[in-house]
Amino acid sequence: MVAKNQEEIEIIKQELLRSTYSEGNSNSEEQDIGKSSSSDSEEINSFRYPAVILIGNAGVGKSTLGNWLLGYHGDGGPFETKASCDPVTLEPQTALLEISDRKYNLIDTPGLFDVKDDARSDIALTKLANTINHCSYGIQTIIFVVKKSFGKEIDRQIQAIKGFLGEKALDHILIAFTHVNMDQTMDRTVMKKSFNSRMINFLNKIDNRWIVSPNPDLFTLEDDIVYTNVYEAKDIIESFPEAYTTDMFNRVRRAREEAEEAARIKAQEERLRACEEEISRLRNNAGIQAARNEAEKQCFSLDTIVTLEGGKKIEMSEVRVGDKVACVGSNNKVEYSEVYLIAHVDKDKQAEFLKVDYTKPDGTTGCLNLTSEHHLFVNGSFDYAHNIRPNDSQIQILYKDELIPVRVTNVSKEIRKGYIGIFTRTGTIIADDVFCSCYSSCPPYQNIIHYIMAPIRFTTLFHKSNYCDSEIHPYLKFLYNNYKSITGAF
Ligand SMILES: Nc1nc2c(ncn2[C@@H]2O[C@H](COP(=O)(O)OP(=O)(O)OP(=O)(O)O)[C@@H](O)[C@H]2O)c(=O)[nH]1
Ligand SMILES: [Mg+2]
């Protein structure tokens, strides 16, 4: 059984060690008779005789039977008894029991198996375990007290005892039935007839070691049947050739602890697995972040359509240096400008793109995929793509050979494979019919960037660039890294 509240149990264990068996000091056997007032601190960890332990659910009549066995009336002995909804015996109590000159420590225990409260059952089992560990002379008999009407539950409860004390404990078990009526108490044969087959089977397994604990409301100490039943119980207690030892209990306990440890390791492994999944999720996210970072320096999706002089439309990935593509000139008119540089191109790297959707005047839709730092013409000037707001931002599109304004209907993010950045001599380009800048990353001051690009535009007039690499062109890299110091004005 797995403890619900391990901390609480540990505290109780410590308290038990400190208090339960150290409520005073007695070496005299007279003081041992009746309620225990145990030994000095050196002796805390042991009883002096084999133990007879009363166990069972709360309120079944354990303390009452203990009193009968000690020679008192069931409700009048050293063990407190009470008709109460709350458990009465809260800590293990001990008393000296003498049978034919042999002495035993009779131990009354708190109720086990609280069906409504597993945590309380665990605490009670822990207290019982602690008690058993004090039984250095072994356990002569485990008296399992059950209400007769609870016979149906016997299997479940015996299973719990076996799990806790081990199979061998059954060899030391004595069943005591309580809440038995007058006739059944008086005559064992009448009682036997009331057993169902499951009970008969079980009792057979334990060599019919059972007794009836007389109802304290029906019987007195003077009644012969009380004597007979108590005698019978004592007879059985004496009959065990050897005591069940704590070694056996400790073996079972170790096995149980190993099973609990295995369960703990398994739970730990599951937690570890969950952590690994989380790490892999984070790694994945980091991958997306890397793609995002990468994207900051990128430009267009490879499949972005551009229009060549003559009207032919091709994907940007097919554009070659020297091609003339549709762009927007300084007079704000559509013209064709030479591609002088492919700033960078990569067919495999993933990058995060913004997908900008718009609707044309004829109702058809279009979209442009570009990276968030890329510049395009929005609301009358160049701005970063990430500043576009659906329904609010107005972009310029090429429609029937003319630039017209349309509203952006939606902006979403997409991870796509591959990217390309191409530069035209005008520094602008019509990509997927949308008027865009060729530039990105720096603040969107189109004219200033265009001016800064002059050296490379100039040199490529004489030396055609054949640069084609996934790394951005070195000159641009230098510009992007130093744009603040170069431009001062930004
Ligand atoms: N009807 C009937 N009542 C009984 C019998 N045995 C005990 N009682 C009564 O049941 C009540 C509880 O008995 P206890 O002996 O205190 O029960 P317990 O198992 O020690 O209870 P906890 O200490 O709370 O676990 C008392 O009022 C007893 O008089 C029995 O065989 N029949
Ligand atoms: Mg009790």
From TrEMBL:
Keyword Coiled coil assigned: yes
One GO molecular-function entry: GTP binding
Record's keyword annotation contains Phosphoprotein: no
Protein name, UniProt field: Hint domain-containing protein
Example GO biological process: protein autoprocessing
Coiled coil spans: 252-285
Keywords for the protein's UniProt record, in alphabetical order: Coiled coil, Nucleotide-binding
Organism: Rhizophagus irregularis (strain DAOM 197198w) (Glomus intraradices)
Gene3D superfamilies from the UniProt entry: Hedgehog/Intein (Hint) domain, P-loop containing nucleotide triphosphate hydrolases
Residue ranges of every copy of the Hint domain listed in the record: 297-398
Domain of life from the UniProt record: Eukaryota
Annotated region described as Disordered, given as residue ranges: 20-41
